[in-house]
Amino acid sequence: MKLLLIDDERDFIETMEKRFKFRKIDVTAAGSGAQALEILGREEFDVAILDVRMPGMDGLDTLKEIKKRHPLMEVIMLTGHGSVESGARGMSLGAYDYVLKPVDFSVLLDKVEMAYERKLLNVAKNA
Amino acid sequence: MSGNSSTSRKTPDPVPASGTSPPLGDKRAVPGLALYTVLVPVLAGAAVLTAAACAPAMGVFLAVLTLALTAWSARRLAGLAGRAEGERCLLTAKLMQSQKLAAVGELSSGIAHEINNPLAIISQEAELCGALVEAKGAMDPELADCLAEIARQVARGRDITRRLLDFSRKMEPVTQLESLDRAVEDMVVLVEKEARLRNVNVIRRYDPDAPRLLIDVPLLRQAVINLLTNALDALEEKDQAGGEEAHGTIVVSTWRSGPGEAAITVADDGPGVARENLARVFHPFFTTKPPGKGTGLGLSITHNIVERMGGRMEVVSEPGQGAAFTIHLPLKGETP
Q1: Domain A2-126 architecture
Q2: Does the N-terminal peptide bond of residue A102 adopt cis geometry, omega within 30 degrees of 0?
Q3: Residue B336: pLDDT band by 50, 70, 90 thresholds?
Q4: A91 closest CB neighbour out of B178, B193, B218
């Protein structure tokens, strides 16, 4: 499984990277929505973890672009502030889940795996 | 523990919003029919023949007996016919509701397609207009403001057309085995935080033996967050009407709604749905919210999602006492 982490908080990215690598998951980090789209243009990923609040292109705009260009990649949204409107929008834009920070790592890992399973099911269906 | 919220709100006429046929008892009437069409006439005939051959007192007794028997039989038959008619009416109403929703959905997606093109042209022309004015060095803040407003309103229009197209898109659900409360919980957590700020209490009543179902997890989450948003909005309405002591409660429960079904109910104690609106709540663009507050697509999208997953939706509401929206899902993926 190839995982893309998109968050502007360096500390968060670093810890997450370490923990996913420890679980032998191939993880790449992007510091912004624009950078994520650039990486996605070169490489294919299965699941992305995307922070909602980022300077510049925010999480929802990034999600919209991702779903337009890579509809089969699953995206789990992370948010620090639970906004219902943003959650409803994110889910309607095709997010896999909308999770409130701080999230327990094992719970997140579980969600990533479920999202990956869905991606595989979707790929098989579209093959 | 489960299902209290929905049963406590039972009103005489829950409005079914799906075309899936419920298990109706019309077949049960058939075996009884032989009793009324064969046995009762034979008995009556036998009584008449016997009366002709015996004493007048016995004849009177047999006549009274025959009268009672035929009256009872006629009454039962009339009851059966009435029940069958009632069931037929219910089925017809369900079918009509389902067809109406499908037709409205088709119509709105057609309109969305048509409106997308002019929207694209408006936004391109506005952009070009800005560039032209800028090139002439004549851009002033007020004009820039006007152009930005045009772009904002176009984006708003696009958002509506996108949701409409989503609404009618017939994408096949991708199903995974997941327990209902796990699929629902993240949306509840998300809403809970904002609800607390609005003085709204969110209560969970999850079925501890919740089955694992084959469901399209993100689609179901979308349906649930739409119901939660709707409940929050309803409570806000009550807040505005009720002044300071108002504070609301949202109860989210998962329960077994039938032998082959599991359900999620989102109930609020807001103003409820007016009786005359109950049948229309799932129609696209139907809204009681003030202009600009809602497009009236949330519930129709939710209804559409649930139907695509093979489920059905139901709303129960007593005006002034809140509303309970229930998603029923088939247990086809249950693990032993």
Answers
A1: 3-Layer(aba) Sandwich (3.40)
A2: yes
A3: very low
A4: B218
